[in-house]
Here is the input.
Amino acid sequence: MMVDAAFSDPARERMLFARRLFVGTLVTLILSIVLSLRYFDLQISRYQNFATQSNNNRVLVRPLPPPRGLIYDRNGKLIADNRPSYNLTIVPERSDDVEQLLSDLGQLITLSKRDIRRFRKNLKRRRPFEQTTLHVNLSEAERAILAVNGHRLSGAETSARLIRHYPFQDLFAHAVGYLGRINERESQTIESVKYSGTDSIGKVGLEKFYENQLLGTVGSEQVETNARGRAMRVLDKTPAVPGDNLTLYIDSDLQRVAFDAFKGERGALVAIEVATGGILAMVSTPSYDPNLFVTGISQKNYDGLLYSNDRPLFDRTIRGQYPPGSTIKPMFGLIALQHNIVTPNDKINDNGYYYFEGIERPWRDHNFARGGHGDGVNLSKAIIESCNIYFYGLGVKTGIELLSNYGSQFGLGSATGIDMPGERPGIMPNRAWKKGAHGQSWFDGDTINASIGQGFMLTTPLQLAVMSARIASRGDARTPRLVKSINGVEQTPLQTEDNIEVSAKHWDYMHQAMQDVVHSSRGTARSISKGLDYKIAGKTGTAQAISIDAEEKYDSSKIDKRQWDHALFVAFAPVEKPKIAIGLIVENGEHGGSSAAPIARAVFDAYMQSQQSATSVVRR
Amino acid sequence: MHRGDFVRQMSNPGGDRRPARALHIDIPLLLLLLVLCGIGLTVLYSASGQSIFYVKRQATFMLVGLFSMLLVAQFKPRFWERGSALVYIGGLLLLVAVLFFGIGAKGAQRWLDLGFTRFQPSELMKIAVPMMVSAYLSKRYLPPQFKHVFFATLATLLPVLLVAKQPDLGTSLIIFSSGFFAIFLAGLGKRYLISTGLLALAAVPILWFYVLLDYQKQRVLTLLNPEDDKLGAGWNIIQSTTAIGSGGWSGKGWTQGTQSQLNFLPESHTDFIIAVLAEEFGLIGVLTLLLVYLLLIGRCMVIALNAQTMFSRLVAGTLSLTFFVYIFVNMGMVSGILPVVGAPLPFISYGGSAIVTLFCGFGILMAISTEPKRI
Here is the structure.
């Protein structure tokens, strides 16, 4: 550094610096004088003015929190509304003796230790004349007691506010979500003015996704106060604008039928209106009561939900990722047909084992013990009887890249884009994915596993429903949506991706095959066809929860029920003009045909009935 | 260093400062800082609604700050000069990290979460930029040539833009002025000064239409018409000018300010605390505080003039001028002559990290002031 400095003139540089510092000092002094003059102007010249204003200025601006938007089902039934709740608050400045007041109150109503502890903590941080909450959710009886004794409880007030209420309790817990207290993390990311007077925020589900619409706009009122800060009269008021109301595609009756059909089993079901992509029902069981969260859930209740083996808080519809099993066979069949990899006439002989060149150990079919599906298995039969051996060969011939590309068009392997937060993408594996995730090359064995929806492949129940709807609509790729209209304004046409290119005859062929899964005597879901007056098309599936050796026989009686296979079913109805499509899973339900399909049947029946009664009303 | 330096230094006028010198403490600076802290805690007690909780926390931060200041003072200015590039580059990387991993408050992303605590890299830059620019320019011929001015400006603008993007307008303004002061003190030519001024004027419409976010524009509009935004910043200005104005000559007395005590004044313990002081201690109180600030700045100017190297001079001068910017911006915005940008009043406003940063800056000044004299 001294190299440069050696040739410089230190004395001159120093003088230059001193001059500059002098200029800086001068500016500092001038600006200080400006400041002093400004304060002199405010405090001395205009003192009289401000002093009067300050004396009269007993005007407080108070925020008026907006009522949160309501949520309705498609028939106008209230799913989330607001109810008044009464809190007991204390303003210590207005009480002569807070301790005395607390003990008086304790004799009138029950105050928990937690109430008192929280109150004392908040008391330390509050500002003068601010209401500090002592007890939330006063019952009607408690309010009456407090009102009668009001004269000797100066400093205590009951304040009313609106709290969220979910009349259906656990029925919509996952889809609609719930509202909870704003926590510290959230309080740092929200705009505090918007939330003045509001202490809750949407935590999960629709309540979170549509937070901005549901919240509304805060209003304000100017209140004149007396010398002790007590509000005397309202001078000016800007009313709050209530939040937007949401109307969902969901039919709460259908939701009830679906929920009850699980009969306490763990699982998930999503039903989609084929024409619009709207969600008709969205069930994840077991569920929980979202009302518990609204005023702050107790630690005990929360731990109970959090640590339960059944994981009730877990939204299986969009976050549960399961191997799709055989439910993807119709989709793979369509891909192979469209690309002329197989024709409906191609047949194989299935003896229960599939040998792949160069690999010693065979892949087996689930009914290998019976010697396979026998001679003459074509695509239709492979779908109807769910023949794995056929699809092993088909998968290898088609290749994973084609399967994977098409799979994503049917909604697998990436988030569907539904209007809910926290959706998981599932996995639609291909070469690049395996390289990235496992650092390994793709083997034909991986393709064979993928061809029956096992191995790396994972899907959410929502994705299964979307796949089912896209097959039902013959390739109309709609994004699933829960919200039908906001404040009565129909939401703009749902985003449609490019429609899936498969020729009409292949759709016909596959719809027929899926219909035969239910309606033919050898179909894997034939048990639900009894007494049907309309046609259902479907495909059963079984997903392994644990891996089983090829030679070992899967025997449910020998393993714990938690390790039983998951039962899956995708379906749509009526086949001639599909209106509703379903994807569902019953965890550890073993067989799609026996445990999952009957749930779908119950939902279809209820839906068809409601359609019939709707049309009959119109006719009348 | 020669042994002779030490002897000469001992014969310095100003009495026996040996113990203080040995600990690298500048007594006038320390006394003035302690006075400020005292004023700060007194006003804070009243401004926070007589909350001992806030006072205790603030006092803790002040102690941490004092300790950091003494620690910083123990290293020679030469050490800081050499380390400035490292600190600067480190700070820059952290600012970039904030863009990607930062956590936010109210739409702004300013902190890095270190697990046990939060850290605001923009605070570091308030010191790193003056150090870096001073170290860079002090190695060149002064007044600096065009290319040196160019690089110094670049070194300033980089962090300024990163911080403005968070967005934190108040801090980016402080960082910008610190870089500018360093270049100015180094002897920036008059031609540059004039053209910079013109450029700045030309930049105003660009800033308004392309850079400033809606809420920032709102702040400026609020200054012109405070009635428009009653729940937000406009309310603050109406209430703070009323609070200040109603203080008169001698104020309403400690903890007796109706505006602040009756909760009319939001953020009264942070950015708007000067309104509480003005209401309760009047113009006399305001001028006293301003006087203490000016004495402090004066002392820093003296240190700058007597400093041993050009680096020390530039850093000391820059830090003291920047310190005044804090005061001017805050007192100006609360009294309604500047837009509200979110700038705390040094040592008076509640807030931990800002106080520690300030003390560290004064630590460097102490290191400079107690540096042994060379021939």
Q: What stands out?
A: Chain A touches chain B through 60 residues (CB under 8 Å).
